[in-house]
């Protein structure tokens, strides 16, 4: 009989020629379980998605309740659907006053696409500024923001009028001018291997955008919803964006994204032309119910986000090895810098053997990604670090023996 693994390889489209191919039977808390019952600590939370762990009972209950009421009804924005309304209202209560209108979509890259359209429509400008080695999604407009030709060359021509600057380089801000519709950047850069802004950089970006009338779009698809130790990462830097992008953890494990702006700005989608942006499944009631439950947990159980800093410190205290060049972090988004991709790949596979899932970064393949559920316990952190250090030690010693 053909195995499920073979059916997966034959009929499910692949993104690379060596998928991890764990056959997951169930998931709970920080653990994934395969069909043999083996447990794996999910130290990347589905790439920063399952920030409250897998199968959180409050989120599951909200999903089940909504499925008993209704699923899809009509394209987004036409009917008054309670999960959307309640989630948008709770979001507004936890954001600066001007970020009072939410457009729900299905994913992070769709949030990027909608925000770019909104910036062009509202400003009447066409020039877009993004950062070198940035990642905002994989649809056509989103990959146009990338500077790396390795990922973009096969899909050219891309969106025109995209220009790149260096993150944390204030001199580059002169490229933001009166023709610029928007500047889009991650509040904390993730795929480069965790790079927070430094030297009041975001304040300087905000000031430059205000000077020339450009909109500032902050991408918190990975770093929002408590990941860096505040509900939104920009809270730590004394500024606020004109448009905020959310996804990943925002949906509580369900596919949900959003771009958030002022009502005045968002209303520009209603005319010239009307239906300026439209989605069939964006803001799906079940996804919004899950997102609402997740956001309620994060805002009501304040100890979860307040505990991020101490948990990150525990990781950093434990992760000491001669092969580790540096451990960088923004809250519980962490990068263990090693010397080579071969070391990282070796560590990933050794960890899998001993029951832990980790990963690398798109623009820093020499670093191991750590982004666990925010409610991971201290005991689970210590167990994770024991597995990680054993894997690093084995790979490092094997490499030295070969030399």
From TrEMBL:
<dbReference type="InterPro" id="IPR005814">
    <property type="entry name" value="Aminotrans_3"/>
</dbReference>
<dbReference type="GO" id="GO:0030170">
    <property type="term" value="F:pyridoxal phosphate binding"/>
</dbReference>
<dbReference type="InterPro" id="IPR015422">
    <property type="entry name" value="PyrdxlP-dep_Trfase_small"/>
</dbReference>
<dbReference type="GO" id="GO:0003992">
    <property type="term" value="F:N2-acetyl-L-ornithine:2-oxoglutarate 5-aminotransferase activity"/>
</dbReference>
<dbReference type="InterPro" id="IPR015421">
    <property type="entry name" value="PyrdxlP-dep_Trfase_major"/>
</dbReference>
<dbReference type="Pfam" id="PF00202">
    <property type="entry name" value="Aminotran_3"/>
</dbReference>
<dbReference type="InterPro" id="IPR050103">
    <property type="entry name" value="Class-III_PLP-dep_AT"/>
</dbReference>
<dbReference type="InterPro" id="IPR049704">
    <property type="entry name" value="Aminotrans_3_PPA_site"/>
</dbReference>
<keyword id="KW-0032">Aminotransferase</keyword>
<keyword id="KW-0663">Pyridoxal phosphate</keyword>
<protein>
    <submittedName>
        <fullName>Acetylornithine aminotransferase (EC)</fullName>
        <ecNumber>2.6.1.11</ecNumber>
    </submittedName>
</protein>
<keyword id="KW-0808">Transferase</keyword>
<comment type="similarity">
    <text>Belongs to the class-III pyridoxal-phosphate-dependent aminotransferase family.</text>
</comment>
<dbReference type="InterPro" id="IPR015424">
    <property type="entry name" value="PyrdxlP-dep_Trfase"/>
</dbReference>
<dbReference type="GO" id="GO:0042802">
    <property type="term" value="F:identical protein binding"/>
</dbReference>
């Amino acid at each position: 009989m053909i195995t499920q693994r073979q059916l997966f390889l034959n009929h499910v489209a692949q993104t690379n020629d060596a998928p991890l191919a764990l056959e997951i039977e169930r998931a709970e808390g920080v653990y994934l379980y395969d069909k043999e019952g083996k447990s794996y600590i999910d130290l990347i939370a589905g790439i920063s998605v399952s920030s409250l762990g897998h199968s959180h009972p409050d989120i599951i209950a909200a999903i089940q309740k909504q499925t008993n009421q209704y699923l899809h009804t009509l394209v987004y924005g036409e009917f008054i659907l309670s999960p959307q309304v309640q989630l948008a209202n709770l979001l507004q209560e936890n954001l600066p006053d001007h970020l009072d209108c939410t457009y729900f979509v299905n994913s992070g890259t769709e949030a990027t696409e909608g925000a770019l359209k909104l910036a062009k429509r509202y400003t009447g400008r066409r020039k877009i500024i993004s950062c070198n080695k940035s990642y905002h999604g994989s649809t056509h407009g989103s990959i146009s923001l990338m500077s790396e030709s390795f990922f973009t060359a096969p899909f050219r021509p891309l969106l025109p009028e995209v220009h790149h600057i260096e993150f944390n380089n204030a001199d580059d801000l002169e490229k933001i001018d009166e023709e610029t519709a928007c500047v889009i950047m991650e509040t904390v850069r993730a795929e480069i291997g965790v790079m927070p802004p430094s030297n009041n950089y975001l304040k300087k970006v905000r000031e430059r955008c205000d000077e020339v009338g450009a909109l500032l779009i902050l991408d918190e698809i990975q770093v929002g919803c408590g990941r860096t130790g505040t509900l939104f990462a920009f809270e730590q830097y004394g500024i606020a964006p004109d448009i905020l992008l959310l996804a990943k953890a925002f949906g509580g494990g369900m596919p949900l994204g959003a771009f958030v702006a002022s009502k005045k700005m968002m209303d520009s989608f209603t005319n010239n032309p009307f239906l300026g942006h439209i989605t069939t499944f964006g803001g799906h009631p079940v996804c919004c119910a899950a997102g609402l439950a997740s956001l309620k947990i994060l805002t009501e159980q304040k100890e979860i986000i307040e505990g991020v800093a101490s948990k990150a410190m525990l990781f950093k205290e434990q992760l000491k090895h001669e092969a580790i060049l540096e451990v960088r972090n923004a809250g519980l988004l962490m990068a263990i810098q090693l010397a080579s991709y071969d070391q990282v790949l070796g560590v990933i596979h050794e960890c899998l053997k001993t029951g832990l899932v980790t990963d690398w970064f798109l623009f820093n393949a020499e670093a191991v990604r750590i982004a666990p559920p925010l409610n991971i316990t201290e005991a689970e952190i210590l167990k994770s670090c024991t597995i990680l250090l054993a894997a690093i030690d084995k790979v490092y010693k094997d490499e030295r023996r070969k030399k």
